[in-house]
Amino acid sequence: MVLIDLLGFGFSDRPAGFGYTIDDHARTLVELLSELAPESLDLFGHSMGGSVAIVAASLIGDRVRNLVLSEPNLDPGGGFYSRKVAAMNERDYVAYGHEALVRTSKSDGDGIWAASLSVSAPHAVHRGAISLVAGGKPAWRELLLGMAMPRTVIFGENSLPDEDTQRLPQQGINISVVPQAGHSMAWENPAGLANSLREALS
Questions:
Q1: Which residue, 90, 81, 82, 66, is CA-closest to 153?
Q2: Looking at residue 8, what is its pLDDT?
Q3: Residue 119 in contact with residue 111, Cβ under 8 Å?
């Protein structure tokens, strides 16, 4: 198993000249995976990482045995935080917006998200948010629906109702729900997420 911090996030490099779009991240991921798993692999991505995983899987093709996504961005528009970040220009976000978002997230009780932001490069966060709001071409939902490998989308129980829990199974995509968790299921119910991943890969 390999856990990956995307460029600009966590403890990965944060080059200033990198675009940090979903497509940029996906192409970088594909290059890495061609070295680490040249024959076959299972691919998992959460939230923005879900969009990255979709694009990467479309580039990797038949080598992907299973594609598993937890609450991915399938459509343009981004989520709450992405829209908030993208509403600022990059210069202002880097100068003061990022630090303010970390501080506000922490004071709102979202300490793990604040900690994640604090070890991420402001320019990477901003460019990623802009990409999420703009969406992909072709759309990430369209790419997902066009794939042939087994695909599972995981939702947190507290994120429901979501029309995709009804719509996606009609389009050949499996659904799993992590109990007692919302979007941040990896720390709200890690055992529940592990169970959903196990089922998706079995």
A1: 66
A2: 97
A3: no
Facing residues of 70 across strands? 46, 154
pLDDT in tens, 19-42: 999 999 999 999 999 999 889 999
Are residues 50 and 140 both part of a single domain? yes
Q: Note down the domain range covering 39.
A: 17-76+135-202
In three-state secondary structure terms, 77 is coil
Q: What are phi and psi of 153, to 5 degrees?
A: -115, 125
Burial profile 124-142: b = 16 or more Cβ within 10 angstroms, e = fewer: bbbbbbbbbbebbeeebbe
Q: Position 130: which residue type?
A: I
Q: Looking at the domain assignment, is residue 130 inside a domain?
A: yes
Q: Per the structure block, which two tokens stand in for 2?
A: 């390999």
Q: Exposed, middle or buried by CB within 10 Å (0-12, 13-18, 19+), for 37?
A: middle
